[in-house]
Amino acid sequence: MDYEIKHSGKFKYIEEGEGQPLILLHGLFGALSNFMDLVDYFKKTHKVIIPMLPLYDLTLLDTTVSGLAKHVDKFLENRNLHNVHLLGNSLGGHIGLVYALKHQENVKTITLTGSSGLFENGMGETYPKRGDYEFIKRKTELTFYDPKVATKELVDEVFAIVNNRLKALKVISLAKSAIRHNLGDEVSNIKVPTCLIWGMNDTITPPMVADEFKKLIPTAELHWIDKCGHAAMMEVPDEFNKILAAFLEKHKA
Predict the structure, then answer these.
(1) Which strands sit side by side in the sheet containing 107-113, from one edge to the other?
(2) Domain 6-120+182-250 belongs to what topology?
(3) pLDDT of residue 60
(4) End-to-end CA distance of the chain
(5) What is the mean pLDDT of residues 206-215?
(6) Would you give the distance in Å from CA 242 to the centre of its chain?
(7) Distance in angstroms (rounded) separating the CA atoms of residues 129 and 85
(8) Which residues have CB under 8 Å from 120's CB, separation 6+?
(9) How far is CA 219 from the centre of its chain?
(10) For 65-85, what is each residue's pLDDT tens digit?
(11) Residue 92 half-sphere exposure, CB side, CA atoms within 13 Å?
(12) DSSP for 78-144, written as a single string
């Protein structure tokens, strides 16, 4: 189902449903379609909001994890959103953590799935040659346990990004920023309830990353999904939504 993209000042976002705000933060190659099953499920109980992160619109200096966390801060202020449930996949989880570490008073819960912040495998040591569609297809398929989840539409979206010179530069900048901005010494300061939902077959942020987050974040609970890769909410939406619904129900008061 297609949802309307709304505008408020410089911000673009999707907003569906009523209730406590559930903010979804997408990753580096994340498309809005990644969250559609989640939106369809949770709009019945929450106000589900996906801010469109300006991955390619900030200056190169601000194209960092911290720069995007500041954007989230300004967006939440603009929309007057308080006591939010934050959910982030991949880079989105990293951005959510950076925001939460500075604004815990405004965060009710955090859910991380395949989050960067401690360790992640990227495209490799060198960026792929422009025009190498098969390489991009293989890399996109590695995001999932079942390569069929990497539809032609999804591969085409990633291919279009890496073949745009400016977007490719921004992707490299963000990937390097994510590696530099390691949160290993900071996440123990997270005090809000935290849910880790992880694919046991994630090759980008492997299971040991989830174990490390669980060890470092005092409030964290960890849920595994078998036969699942880096984007659990997309690959195994029914199981993911069931875990998340139970977690949010525990912390709705």
Answers:
(1) 6-8, 11-16, 47-51, 21-25, 84-89, 107-113, 194-199, 220-225
(2) Rossmann fold (3.40.50)
(3) 81
(4) 31
(5) 97
(6) 18
(7) 39
(8) 90, 178, 179, 204, 205, 209
(9) 20
(10) 999 999 999 999 999 999 999
(11) 28
(12) HTT--SEEEEEETHHHHHHHHHHHH-GGGEEEEEEES--SS----S-SSPPPTT-HHHHHHHHHTTS
Pairwise CA distance, residues 203 & 24, whole Å: 22
Largest CA distance in the chain: 51
SS3 of 25, please?
strand
**DSSP string of 202-224, one letter each residue:** -SSS-HHHHHHHHHH-TTEEEEE
pTM over 0.90: yes
Beta-carbon contacts of 13 under 8 Å, excluding residues fewer than 6 positions away, are 5, 6, 49, 50, 51, 52, 75, 79
Contact by Cβ (8 Å): 174, 65: yes
The tokens for 179 are 């590696």
- Supply the pLDDT for residue 34: 84
Give the β-pairing of 21-25 and 84-89: parallel
> Per-domain residue ranges for the chain?
6-120+182-250
pLDDT in tens, 144-181: 999 999 999 989 988 998 889 888 888 888 888 988 99
* CB 111, CB 47: distance < 8 Å: no
State the Cα torsion 249-236-118-157 to the nearest 10°.
-120
